[in-house]
Amino acid sequence: MGFDISSDRYSILATPVGMSEQSPLPTIAQASDPLVMEKGTRQERENNGEPQYVITRSGRYSIRWHLLRELDYKLYTKPSKEYILIPVLARSPATLFRFWQPRLDDSPPAWSLDDLYIGGSEISAAELMDHFEGEPTISEWLFAPHSENKKDYCSADTNGSLVWGAASPGHRAITTQELIINEGHVLQFKLSVGCGESQQQQQSCSSEDSGVTLQYSLDGGVTGWQLVRDSCLPGTSPDPDCIPYSYHPQSIFKADIYSHWTRITVPLPEKTWASTTQLRWVQETVGHGSKTIPWSLDDVYVGDPCPEHCHGHGDCLAAQCVCDEGFIGESCLPVPSASSPLPTSLVDGFEAGIEANWLEISGGGVGLGCNSLAPYGHGKHLYFSGCGTRHAITKDMDARRASKIMFVLRIGSHDNTPSCYVNLGDPQRALDKGVILQYTINNGIIWNTINVHDPLDFRKARRVAYSLPYEAKRYGIQLRWWQPDHDGTNTDHWAIDNVEIVL
After folding, report:
1. From residue 492, how far is each of 261, 354, 459 by CA, in Å?
2. Domain EGF-like: where (predicted)?
3. Whole-model pTM?
4. What stretch(es) of the chain map to CATH 2.60.120.260?
5. Does domain 346-502 have CATH number 2.60.120.260?
């Protein structure tokens, strides 16, 4: 098979499959992702004289093969990737490539090749937009194994989305072609994880490892894939891009929060800025026989940012906002309504359950797990002991005239009551098990920190009060109480009560 690669900066990539006892010379087929060889583990590999696996190319009308890369079998006993830049002399209108293993008198070890991509461009695209109304195109995407295009998935009125169903096996991922990512570029997409599963399955601790991870690579994955956004926490911040007092979790999306279609906007950090950046959404299966959580992707945009990120209430398309209903202007500001105004205050003691003040409560519910929060709180409280994400987020509020936030907080207990204790044995993680109070003016794209509450200071219930920051005195803000880290279900408990936001 010949390839016309005379004009662009082409490269070869590929990834691995299984092996057989006897494997014929593989044929070249256009696909996409990085280049991989997988060798057998036969005894003859111990022989130093065993030939290597060779990638060669031939130009138009040529009978001579030129070496591109010799692959030492010792480096490929496990599946791995190769990324090869095609030299200028090989960029002809009719170039042939072959993957060749020289003949031996003895039977050579088997090998296999998968995820082969030959292509590329001298200049990568600086923008990507795809609504997945059809299958992914090779000009924008590499592989999307085990996916299928479906309309109206997860009760959404869509013309199509990519779906990885519960029955789809193995590696479940999709990777972009190389993109130019510059300062200020943003990634926006819609995601659902666990749609169609029961609420019990979505919140099950067994699904902890079934999240969808957002990663990036600058070299086709040869040196591995890294998280687009690592966790930035009060006690531990492994990501050098962390900004002081700007705390957020990793770019891993799980069913406890993302079971319904959710628009996610990620300002791309400096580590992703390059002319060869690829982005990947991947869900690894936990193991043979394990439960696989379905997930779906739609409306992907990579490019220049929209004004104020559309305040989290609109789709960003070519740097222009397409606002959700009820939001207007070039940055999708909320529209004050006389008929259905946003609340200007909040008072909740949780005695009557969870009132209409809360948009989302995850990992907790109304109960008596931390006993009495006397003398500042009495009776029921909002109690957190579940696995996965633990947070409470208010609905949108009109905080233009609000002045104070007050609440009662307890994290664990001095006597380590079984239903209300916190493990502070690891000093590095101790502060991360605290509770962070934050606010957002853009529907959760960026959370701004008001304060971090150290468990050492709150093992006895305390009432705290804060002046609302000037930047938070807006129409349409939300507040969040969030515990970034814990040891799992029924550990590192905490509770809040008597929450008040007053004028």
Report:
1. 30, 22, 11
2. 321-332
3. 0.83
4. 2-119, 128-304, 346-502
5. yes
